[in-house]
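Record type: monomer structure entry
Structure origin: computed from sequence
Chain ID: A
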Amino acid sequence: MTLLEYPAHISADVRAQGYAIWPGFLTGPATARLQDHVNRLVSGVHANHYPKSTRVWDLFRHGEPFVDLLATPSLTAVLDELLGEHHLLSDFSLNVVHPQQPVDGWHIDYPYNEMSAPVSGSLLGLQCVLPLSPFHAANGATELVPSSHTRKSPPDPQQINGQVVFDAEPGSLLVMAAATWHRSGFNGSPHPRSAILLSFVERWVRPMSDPPEEGPWARTGALRTLLGMQRPPETINGVPI
């Protein structure tokens, strides 16, 4: 594949069934580089330790590999196709799930979880899950309900059927519509399960995170736009103002 190419099924699968799995999104060396940085972060001062998990927020602040991930051309191409140009980063965090974490509740993601009357006709947002350790049923990998994104409503436990498990190796990528019903399973293994979470929204949706201050993460205009630090030119009938 060239830098801008990606598996042809990704966009079609997200629209049709609410999610797509992108095997080998990252190469082994790129995944290992992120794993090394994550191992240091989890034991450092920026780690937030909760009863069931450890989180690190705003990963773009914590090293060039995370900024490189945001700037991956093939990922940008997928996001442009699904969310439109000038989409925005909403959340970029590390999630390390501890052993014995119980099953999460079925839910949908931002911005649909904030709506009293969900809209239809647009994806509005995407959640991407990048495993840094193997994901499988035994350690509580993400479960989701295919095509549930078309319901545009909070999950009803009585209507949950046909759920699938995101079974994947490190470096694969789950691209999921924000309205897809999903949850984290029970981590019955003796090891933590780690993943990078990347949430994106269409350009007119307010992100969950505020724009950052100036820093090395703002090395290009595209990154500045993605982070909400600058807006693309406004237009009237397609003509820049």
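Annotation 1: The longest strand covers residues 88-97.
Annotation 2: The chain has a mean pLDDT of 93.
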